[in-house]
Amino acid sequence: MSKFSRRIFMAGMGSLLAFGSAQAADWPQRPVTVVVPQAAGNSPDVLCRIITDKLSRALGQQFIVENKAGAANVVGMQSVAHATNDGYTFVFATSAALVTNPYTIKALSYDPIKDFVPVAMVAKSHHVLLVNPKVKANNLAELIALEKQAPGSLSLAVDGPRNISGLIAQTINKEAGTKMVLVPYNTISNAVQDSISGRTPVTIQSASVVEPFIKDGSLRPIAVAGNQRIASLPDVPAISETLKSVELQGWFMIMAPAGTPAAIIETMSKAVAKAIAEPDVLERAPTLGFEMEKGENTTPAGAKNFLAAQYAYTGKVLKELGIEPN
Amino acid sequence: MDTLISNLSLGFSVALGLQNLALAFLGCLVGTLIGVLPGVGPVATIAMLLPITFSLDPTGALIMLAGIYYGAQYGGSTTAILVNIPGEATSVVTAVDGHAMARRGRAGAALGIAALGSFFAGTVATIVIAAIGAPLTRVALLFGPTEYFALMIMGLVFAVVLAGGSLLKAVAMIMLGLLLSTVGTDLETGDQRMTFGQPFLWDGIDFAVLAMGVFGVSEILRNLGQSEDRDVVRGAIGRLLPNRKELRQSVAPVVRGTLLGSAFGILPGNGAILAPFASYAVEKKLAKDPSRFGKGAIEGVAGPEAANNAGAQTSFIPLLTLGIPANAVMALMVGAMTIHGIVPGPKVMTGNPSLFWGMIASMWIGNLMLLIINLPLVGLWVRLLKVPYRLLFPAILVFCCIGIYSINSQPIDVLLIGLFGFIGFLLIKFGFEPAPMLLGFVLGKLMEENLRRSLILSRGSLTTFVTEPISAGLLIVSLVLLVTALLPKIRKGRDEVFVE
User: Fold this and answer.
1) Which residue of B has its CA nearest to A109?
2) Record: contact A46-B328, CB cut-off 8 A
3) CATH 3.40.190.150 region(s) of chain A?
4) Number of Cβ pairs closer than 8 Å across A and B?
């Protein structure tokens, strides 16, 4: 090795070492990838792009959204679970990926608790129980009473038996003792259309999708999923106001591969919390059907506790419904 | 009428602004280029370009994205004609006779008629949207699972008509397509069907993977199999544009295709994919000499291309008026709208009239631009075919691989096009046509979903398909079509038996 090239070699090693020790403090040095395990254009994807746009500006590096959709989030989650944990890969994880899949999919290729570390809870998604205006029920209790007069007469459009709307529908049936018939739709458009035309008089949909139909009166909201009313529909009661134990809800959390340096997680978490508290994000959230998270859950520790609680709760609900992994 | 004109003039005043004009041009250009690359579809491109639109105003952003969409539709036809690779379900039909024309040295005519037919269809579809878009939404609501199932049955009958050679082989291919479509997660129970525990099969086989394999890759294998007599035109190219006779032959198919496309496009749930197939079946049925079809009949390009473009455009109706996207590209457009804080739906027309009508006007401008971009390019594309095949095919393969990877970012998809390519090669060798299989595959998923939904809704009663008037009507039409399609073949079959 000539003197010159040795010098270059030493300099290179030196800078590598310096880079290593200063990694957390100088993060991010290059573009950061955020994987969305959903298709581009879906509302989680849109929300993620809004947030990463803020992060790019705040942290001075490009945050690139990469859509790895497919197989009920498994493709995207699996890729991040095995990604390098150097702080340059994150995942915009859905509740389905984190707390539903472990109970519905046999031999899941990732472990939501062990393979990932929570960064920040981002938002809860709002699902609404709606009826066709011809249905003579103004609230959930009346709908249950109506159904009990003729059990099995009402059809309920959902997006699939193991998706959030299907699970909510099954828990309602179980808790209320009703026999509404679930009709699965894998395209939202057909589901909404059939509820407007009255073929499936009841449906559970994301608040963002049905907002215009609520406004023009072609669908009537009678309850919102979860245990709290939502700001965009203040007069519509939460499902748990009528059926106490039905609290299932969708949500999103930013996670990193396990072993990502804690200092980077901390920096990222603070940046995310700041981004999701900005006024224009808060203003857009309802049109996407989300309520942005704030306070304790946006910290890594808070997100971890939230995840643990949801993991246990979903497990209990699915077990009661008799859903087995397959 | 007055309001229509005032609305359209508002629209054109928006769309003819310098910035929006430039964005429409950019969108059409990008769309054409990515459409021409096999496999790189509009979905991947729009997803990649979404962040750029952050800084644009919503109208400009949507005009550009819409330009990419129909630019890609058009560019996809170019690939189908030149190298027999349909990028989307809608250009499968174009590949059949378009590529046959290219082999006969009439690639220029096929490309030219596709451009002209698409422009005419686009113009009519724009007027349809502007004039009766809003009331037509009600028609869509008449279609439920039962009606869709009947519609899909009609689609399968088209597939039988579509078949050129042996009827038995065509039916076998349709069945194979139907079977392939059942791979994946069961919608009703969430169980895995024929996925062998492989996550990449959970969502079923991707249409693009199947199409690129059995059409594109198998075509390459076939060409390499025929030592020097390669398929792509090398000799005389002849007139670049369609001649007078070809133009005259195409007028009626284009008009009929436009009508069919406009009608099918209005149906949400991706009714537009049936339009080119329907148009092809109609043209073949009406033709004096149906045997020309499959061997390079210009009607088989003109009609389906017009139907395709009209359908692509009228499928904006459910999006703009109901806010429900008909396909993946439309879903992305909804995403783009919501990023800009616009909630798609009935309110857009009244709440953002300049956006709504600006977009509609830009559709026509986009179609005009596509014509301007594409007619001069025809010469270039045709000259591309003169590149020696030993240089051309590796390039096609590389683009196929990049394209297919860009759709789902799944390396396994790249391997799968190889596998399907080999299967497609064997099928062609044994005289089976892949087009009916693809139609069976596309319709299979929709058929199964809608069949099961209608049976849940009717609580298991099959009579629902004949007691619902629309469904009953569609089934009767299918039956009539099937009988008229089969009778001559059966009779001919008897004659042949007699001769022996």
Assistant:
1) B199
2) no
3) 31-125+249-321
4) 140
DSSP secondary structure letters along B438-493: HHHHHHHHHHHHHHHHHHHHTTT-TTHHHHSHHHHHHHHHHHHHHHHHHHHHHHHH
d(CA A273, nearest CA chain B) in Å? 20
For A89-111, what is the mean pLDDT? 90
Contacts of A78 in chain B (CB under 8 A): 199
CB A223 within 8 A of CB A238: yes
Q: Which strand (E) or helix (H) includes residue A131?
A: strand A127-131
CB contact under 8 A, B343 and A197: no
Q: Do A70 and B202 touch (CB under 8 A)?
A: yes
Q: For A221-241, what is each residue's pLDDT tens digit?
A: 999 988 888 888 889 999 988
CATH code of domain A31-125+249-321:
3.40.190.150
> Is it true that the peptide bond before A261 is cis, omega within 30 degrees of 0?
no
Give the residue, A239 or B166, on which the prediction is more confident. Answer: A239
Whether residues A208 and B338 touch (CB distance < 8 A) is answered with yes
Whole-angstrom Cα distance, residue B266 to residue A323? 39
- Which pLDDT band holds residue B271 (cuts at 50, 70, 90)? low
- Chain B partners within 8 Å of A152 (Cβ): 459
Sheet-wide strand order for A220-224: A181-184, A155-158, A202-206, A127-131, A220-224
Residue A5: predicted pLDDT: 52
B346 touching A, CB under 8 A? Answer: yes
* Nearest alpha-carbon partner for B75 in B96, B99, B91: B91
Which of B323, B277, B316 minimizes the C-alpha distance to B300? B277
The dihedral over CA atoms of B259, B260, B263, B268, expressed in degrees to the nearest 10, equals -150
Q: Which of B108, B83, B81 is nearest to B95 (CA)?
A: B81
The DSSP secondary-structure symbol of A237 reads P
- Inter-chain CB proximity A109 and B318 less than 8 Å: no
Q: Provide the β-strand partners of residue A205.
A: A128
- For residue B323, list chain A residues with Cβ-Cβ distance below 8 A: 209, 212
> B398 versus B484: which is more confidently predicted?
B398
**Cβ(A292)–Cβ(A123) under 8 Å?**
yes
- Please identify among residues 51-80 of chain A the ones whose CB lies closer than 8 Å to any CB of chain B: 53, 65-72, 74-75, 78
pLDDT per residue over A284-302, tens digit each?
888 788 888 888 888 999 9
Tens digit of pLDDT for each residue in B302-349?
A: 999 999 888 888 877 777 766 666 666 777 777 777 767 676 666 677
Chain B's closest residue to A197, CA to CA, is B141
State the fold for domain A127-224. D-Maltodextrin-Binding Protein; domain 2 (3.40.190)
Average pLDDT over residues A111-118: 93
In degrees rounded to 5, what are phi and psi of residue A120?
Answer: -160, 140
Distance from CA of A73 to the nearest CA of B (A): 10
**pLDDT tens, position by position, A152-185:** 889 999 988 888 889 999 999 998 999 999 999 8
Residue B420's CB is within 10 A of a number of other CB atoms, namely 24
Out of A193, A199, A200, the one facing B268 most closely (by C-beta) is A193
Question: In sequence order, what E strands does B164-219 have?
Answer: 184-185, 192-193
CB B438 within 8 A of CB B111: no
SS3 (DSSP) at B236:
coil
- Name the least confident of B131-145, B170-184, B193-207: B131-145
Contact B331 A42 (CB under 8 A): yes
Provide Rg for chain B, Cα atoms.
22
To the question of pTM greater than 0.90 for the whole model, the response is: no
In A, which residues are within 8 Å of B190 by CB distance? Answer: 104, 160-162, 326
